[in-house]
Structure formats: C-alpha cells, structure tokens
Amino acid sequence: MPKRLIVPLRREVLVGPERLAFFGDAVFAIAITLLALDISVPEDLPDSDVAHAVREAVPAIDAYLLSFFVIGALWLTQHALFRLIATVDRWLLTCYFMLLAVVAALPFPTKLISEYGDTTTGTAFYAASIFLAVALYCVMYLRLIAKPALTTPHTTPTQMTETFRRSVVVALVFATSVPVAFGSPTLAKYWWLLAVPANLLFRARSAAASGGPDEATPSEG
After folding, report:
1. I need a surface site. Which of 15, 124, 140, 191 has the fewest CB within 10 A?
2. Interatomic CA distance for residues 113 and 119, integer angstroms
3. H-type helices in 36-89, by residue range?
4. For the purposes of burial, counting CB atoms within 10 Å of the CB of 51, is it exposed (0-12), middle (13-18) or buried (19 or more)?
C-alpha cells in the first residue's frame, strides 16, 4: 500500500502588508483630522474681542502643528517599515494594532498639552505617548531583525539595523524628556528637538558607510 503523501500546511497569513498599511493610513488620517477639531473660538464675538480670542487659541494651534508633524513622521515611518515587510505574523500584527491605538488616541495628549502645556503632567504625558508609539516601531524592527524570513528579498540586515537605531534615538529623546519635564516643562519641549540633529547624524554616518545617500526614513520626525 503506497504511503500517503503528507504536504505540510503553509503558515497562515493573517493579512497582507499592503492591506494592513491601507488600514493604518486611514487611522493616521483620522487622527490628524481630529487634531484640528480642538481649534476654535467662541461664536458671535464682537469685533473688539476677536483678536483676543485668536490669541487664546494660539496654544491649541501650536499643539496642533506639533502633533501634525509628529503624526506625519510616524506615518512616514509606517511606510518605510512596510517596504521591508513581506509577511505579517501575529507578533507584528499585535504590535501594529497597539501602535494604531496610540496614534488614534494622540488627539487627547495634544489637547492636554495645549491646555496644560506649562505643567509637568501635560508635558510628560505627551512625551510618554510619543515614546510609546516610537518604541512599538522599535519592537517591530527587532522582530524583522530576528525573523529575516518576514522581510522582502531586497531587505538587508544593515538596512534594518540602521533604521532600528534611528528609531531608538527618537524613542530615547522622548523618554528622557519625561524626567526633564519634572524639572522644567519648557526645557522638556526643547529637548524634543534633539531628535532632529541626532537623526541627521545617523543618516550622514549611514550614507558615509554605504558610499551613497541614505534612504529617507520616517522615524526622523
């Protein structure tokens, strides 16, 4: 009696990276749209009070612009990450859903920092929220480094390591700004700007090592 041929089942593909990225695009777009809803002035103001109302709205505008660029940078990070992914496993899917949950909730810390930006709690909570989002990207990059089979054929270990390191830099900047906020909320906000030169330095070093311009990566915002 001939032996029965046993064909191993392929690992279940939960969802394709393209479809997952499209879903993420929608979440990012909604989060950015919700940011603008907190910018408002009272209705039916006399002309003499409009200028004062606009000045009162400046903190909300500042917080909106800050979070707009932060969410934009996180969105660019998403697309840089998904260019490396060929297969999404449960680990990546779980981390990505956690990331989207943080992004969808960013209008809350944005409102908090617009109204209580001069307080330790408001500033530290905002920094912790951004740190959590970037840290989740770091975890996903680590997963790809540990499981190269999940990546596209053209993805190199060096490419993943460099993008991971740049994400770590951003995460560290926001994480270290939390204790800074307990001493000075204003200084903590300026502390966030350190992410820009730090990432430029990493990009320059990466470009020098590869002998050409480094591919733009999103976590640089």
Report:
1. 15
2. 8
3. 47-82
4. exposed
